[in-house]
């Protein structure tokens, strides 16, 4: 898909390749539908160049300590991998100005984060001058 230019953005993250297929995004935009993609800050920067009118929401934990606890409790990373993820998160938070909104995802309060995101979507749909988004 990379070779055929079928991805909107792609990157190798923690040893795995991730990407956003271009065609489904294009089709949804043409139909006037909302699209949500889960990307890291590199992906956000890339997509922002392609779709500057898109809305970018940074989802973050309440604190570094909370993130460390979550990573530890998952039991999916070694301590070395957890340290790398924490360091990466600290660097990514520095890119916050690239985003339009921030939503804090508190432990056991996913409904609150979802409500915040829904409120952002609602507010964006009520803009006097809507953002232009096309691919």
Quick tags:
135 residues, alpha+beta, two-stranded antiparallel ribbon, Rossmann fold, 5 helices, 16% strand
Measure the end-to-end span. 17 Å
Task: Please give the domain count.
Answer: 2
Topology pattern, helix = H, strand = E: EEHHEHHEH
**Spans with pLDDT under 50 lasting ≥5 residues?**
none
Main pleated-sheet profile: 2 strands, antiparallel
Shape field: globular
**Helix proportion:** 40-55%
Strand order of the largest sheet: 1-2
Question: What is the CATH homology-level superfamily of the largest domain?
Answer: P-loop containing nucleotide triphosphate hydrolases
Q: Characterize the quaternary organization of these chains.
A: single chain
- What proportion strand? 15-25%
- What is the average of the pLDDT values? 90
Structural class: alpha+beta
Concise summary:
The protein is α+β, with helices and mostly antiparallel strands. Helix content is 45%, strand content 16%. The strands form 2 sheets. The chain has a two-stranded antiparallel sheet. Strands 3-4 form a two-stranded parallel ribbon.
How do the helices and strands line up, and which of them pair or pack?
Blueprint: E1 7-13, E2 16-21, H1 22-30, H2 41-50, E3 57-60, H3 64-74, H4 79-93, E4 101-104, H5 110-125
Parallel strand pairs: 3-4
Antiparallel strand pairs: 1-2
Helix pairs in contact: 3-4
Account of the protein in words:
With 135 residues, the protein is α+β, with helices and mostly antiparallel strands. The protein folds into two domains: 1-43, no CATH class; 55-128, Rossmann fold (3-Layer(aba) Sandwich). 45% of the residues lie in helices and 16% in strands. It is built from five helices and four strands. The chain has helices at residues 22-30, 41-50, 64-74, 79-93, 110-125; strands at residues 7-13, 16-21, 57-60, 101-104. A two-stranded antiparallel ribbon has the order 1-2. Helix 3 (64-74) runs antiparallel to helix 4 (79-93). The protein is globular, with a radius of gyration of 16 Å. The chain starts with 6 loop residues before the first strand and ends in a 10-residue tail after the last helix. 3% of the residues are buried. The model has no long low-confidence stretch (mean pLDDT 90).
């Amino acid at each position: 898909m990379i070779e055929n230019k079928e991805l909107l953005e792609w990157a190798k993250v923690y040893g795995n390749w991730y990407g956003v297929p271009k065609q489904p995004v294009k089709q949804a935009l043409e139909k006037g539908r909302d699209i949500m993609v889960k990307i890291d800050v590199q992906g956000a920067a890339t997509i922002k160049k392609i779709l500057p009118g898109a809305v970018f929401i940074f989802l973050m934990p309440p604190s570094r300590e909370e993130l460390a606890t979550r990573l530890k409790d998952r039991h999916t990373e070694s301590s070395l991998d957890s340290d790398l993820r924490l360091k990466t998160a600290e660097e990514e938070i520095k890119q916050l100005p690239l985003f339009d909104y921030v939503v804090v995802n508190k432990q056991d309060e996913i409904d609150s984060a979802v409500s915040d995101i829904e409120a952002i979507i609602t507010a964006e749909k009520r803009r006097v001058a809507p953002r232009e988004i096309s691919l």
